[in-house]
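Box 3.1 A note on notation
Throughout this textbook, protein chains are presented in two layers. The first layer is the amino acid sequence; the second is a token string describing backbone geometry. Keep the layers aligned when reading.
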Amino acid sequence: MNNAQKPVILSFVGHSNSGKTGLITQIIPRIKKKGIRVGVVKHAGSPIKVDRRGKDSQRIFESGANPTMVYHKQHLAYFEKPQKDLGLAQIAQRFFSDNDLLITEGFKKESYPKIEVYQYSDKKLPLCFNDDTIEAIITDHPYHWHIPQFSCDDLKGVVEWIIKHYLEFKQ
């Protein structure tokens, strides 16, 4: 794939505890086996702690260095206190220029394509009924959806659909 192209941004959305993280962690290795480079951004509903108190990197960041990077031959971590709320396009531009696909978890309000993860036991209406940027649904509830549907255990089908609809033109 061409490094000069921007990554395709695809969001996995759903109600809390619908299984988004578990699904994402299962499809990433399958997508990578196809030679596709994948990055992930998870939207957090509350502030996160990214380093342990007392560690040098945390002390440097807390002293006001913005941004701060920590490097080890196996990891590179970037810490920043953004001056404003960042949109997905800005995040993708900053961090994922070397990837073909940027999977996000959350970011329901962004207008990028989305796949909903829906559990019938949630008893809430699926998001896809009110969001036309949701292009497919992964669910445990067979129903005549107005968008393509996949069962929760059809990881192969989900990956093939993602590649066909979002990545084939990049190969």
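Residues 8 and 136 are 16 Å apart (CA to CA). The radius of gyration is 18 Å.
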